[in-house]
Amino acid sequence: MITIRDVHKRYSEHDVLNGIDLDIPHAATVTVIGPSGSGKSTLLRVIDVLEHADKGTIDFGDGPVDLATRDKTTIRDIRSRIGFVFQNYNLFANKTALQNVTEPLIYAQGKSRKEAETIGREQLDRVGLADFADRYPSTLSGGQQQRVGIARAIAAKPELLLLDEPTSALDPEMVGGVLEVIRQLASDGMTMLMVTHEMRFAREASDHVVFFEHGSIVEQGSASDIFDHPSQPRTAEFLQSFAS
Known about the structure:
Domain ABC transporter: 2-239
Oligomer: single chain
Membrane topology: Peripheral membrane protein
CATH topology of the largest domain: Rossmann fold
Radius of gyration: 18 Å
Subcellular location: Cell membrane
CATH class of the largest domain: Alpha Beta
Keywords: ATP-binding, Cell membrane, Hydrolase, Membrane, Nucleotide-binding, Transport
Order of helices and strands: EEEHEEHEHHHEHEHEEHH
EC number: 3.6.3.25
């Protein structure tokens, strides 16, 4: 179980996260849904210390760690346990798909190039891109670039995979391939925390769904609880508006 406790984040006078408590069971997919601007992506960035929390902790099972830390060693330790899949891929344009996957293994984990390339090819194969290892991002579709991003994130065998609206930048015809990769990761037992606007996928792929608004958790429960029997009127209103 990964536990996140009392996470706060403020920009100027605006509270973005208001004391978030969240449990992420091992090998589970927890999905955060909610309106744009509600703080969902900020939550992921704070968990990975891409942005510093004002307050809050994360515990991977061996004791709470301060998410407001500025200590570089602590930040590196948190990030070494987390993989992050970004909305807009964040690939290096001047490096091949294989290099995008292998270079973090070489420079952040100290693996030999040979070992890193073996891992990289295995992960590209895992996301269906074994034949694209030597291609540059500019020659790949958006869906293929996102799958490279997923391969990069899982190559280091993270304890937690964060996915920040992984299909939001894709044309509709490219979404299916990425969602299928995520579905396969879930079936393989990857522990994931995902923000998505794909409601059908959230319902099908999630063990636990969290409805988020104004930096707070409005309600949470199983996918069937949230989608079929929401207890809060605001949750029901959001889902109904999405359906329409």
